[in-house]
TrEMBL record:
The keyword Transit peptide does not apply. It comes from Mesorhizobium plurifarium. The chain crosses the membrane at residues 379-399. The keyword Phosphoprotein does not apply. Residues 180-252, 285-359 form the Alpha-galactosidase NEW3 domain. Residues 1-35 form the signal peptide. Keywords: Membrane, Signal, Transmembrane, Transmembrane helix. InterPro entries: A-galactase_NEW3 (IPR018905), Ig-like_fold (IPR013783). This is Alpha-galactosidase NEW3 domain-containing protein. It holds the Pfam family NPCBM_assoc.
């Protein structure tokens, strides 16, 4: 208490006190506001059982199995057991409801849970173009569910395959790699495993690969409407002559067939070999004297060998010439003779020497190492013997005339 005769001072709230009072007020009202918000959300959220599908109306091929996804949802209720069935299907239809991969006749939807189901139908072959109305039913302890659906039967489309090469013709030599890119498509309405076949000229090897893979194939799976790219590699034999060679490629599966034609345009390739006189790669020569050897150029390829120029790498001081220096053309299977004149160095000593002879042309070349056995000239031998004889005569004359001292 304030003593009598003393006036109590007037207190003005500070900013800190004001903020504290506001915080206390908010704290006291927050639980109430949260409770009201939760109650409002609970009041707005629907509760009950729902039987739904994303595809209530659809079409299917007559006589083919159809699968339709179903969902049984429970919102805000205790776990519910629901008996399942299908009503309104005409005679001749078959149906089944699967859950977890096996047929079921009832399902339990937990509180705020969803059960995934599948409706499987097998329609008869008739009634094409006619809409069939039916309903999937569900019966719980407290309510009955009904999902209206409609299906139209369509004609079964025949299986169909197509083969389409991106480049149907390729050109190259017998040594070239012929790799064709071929698109294969399943235009049918069913998945299929497609067998791959080929027919090529004798000696030609054909392999199938998918895209740019390395695994060779003899078949591949194709889903309905799916398209894939095949790599078809064709390897001709090394001795294939120039010309055009067709290769047939075929695919079969699911009662469907497709084929296409590929073309290899082989231009041919020359193959040149160089041999010495009578097939030998050795000969004799005399130091300082020219010796001509006949070399033979042969073309065993499948195309003409053109513009063959001759050259050599002789030892130092040697001279090598060719007649002719250039061979214009050698037909496949043909030959041409070339005169190779070699002049060993005048200072060459007796022995074996190696001369490399080369022929370089348009797309073909070959070389040969020719061994030359060099002998010195007989004139030098006679001269040497003369010098020795003259020296002996001079020595004998000196001894005879002057005697021994």
């Amino acid at each position: 208490m304030i003593p009598a005769g003393i006036r109590a001072p007037f207190l003005t709230p500070t900013p800190c006190i004001t903020a504290a009072l506001i915080a206390i007020g908010l704290a006291s009202t927050a639980p109430q506001a949260y409770a009201q918000s939760a109650a409002s959300a609970a009041a707005q959220s629907p509760s009950g059982l729902w039987l739904t599908t994303p595809y209530p109306e659809f079409s299917a091929q007559a006589g083919k199995n159809v699968s339709v996804p179903l969902n049984l949802a429970n919102r805000g209720l205790p776990p519910q057991r629901v008996e399942l069935g299908v009503d309104g299907l005409p005679d001749g239809w078959k149906w089944e409801i699967d859950g977890g991969g096996k047929p079921v006749t009832a399902a339990i939807a937990g509180s705020d849970g969803t059960v995934s189901l599948t409706l499987k139908l097998t329609p008869p072959t008739g009634d094409l173009g006619k809409a069939v109305n039916f309903a999937v039913s569900g019966k719980a302890s407290t309510e009955a569910l009904k999902l209206p659906m409609a299906m139209t039967l369509t004609k079964t489309e025949p299986a169909k395959l197509t083969l389409e090469p991106k480049l149907p013709a390729l050109r190259g030599t017998a040594k070239s790699a012929f790799d064709f890119q071929v698109d294969i498509k399943n235009d049918g309405q069913e998945d299929s495993t497609v067998n791959l076949l080929s027919k090529a000229p004798p000696g030609f090897q054909v392999t199938f690969k998918q895209g740019y893979g390395s695994q060779e194939l003899t078949s591949l799976p194709l889903k309905a409407g799916e398209s894939k790219t095949l790599s078809v590699s064709v390897q001709p034999p090394d001795n294939a002559e120039a010309g055009q060679y067709p290769v047939a490629v075929a695919a079969s599966g699911g009662g469907a067939n497709a084929d296409t034609k590929l073309l290899l345009d082989i231009t041919g390739r020359p193959s040149v070999s160089l041999s010495g006189p009578q097939g030998r790669l050795s000969g004799d020569a005399t130091a300082g004297q020219e010796r001509t050897f006949t070399f033979t150029l042969s073309n065993s390829g499948s195309a003409p060998a053109r513009d063959l120029k001759l050259s050599a790498s002789p030892p130092s001081g040697w001279k090598v010439t060719f007649n002719p220096e250039k061979v214009e053309e050698i037909a496949p299977g043909g030959t041409a003779d070339v005169g190779v004149s070699m002049t060993p160095s005048t200072q060459a000593i007796a022995g074996d020497y190696m001369v490399s002879v080369r022929a370089n042309g348009d797309g073909a070349s070959d070389s040969a190492n020719f061994r030359v056995t060099v002998r010195t000239s007989t004139m030098w031998g006679v001269t040497g013997l003369g010098v020795i004889g003259a020296s002996a005569l001079m020595l004998a004359f000196a001894v005879t005339r002057y005697g021994r001292r």
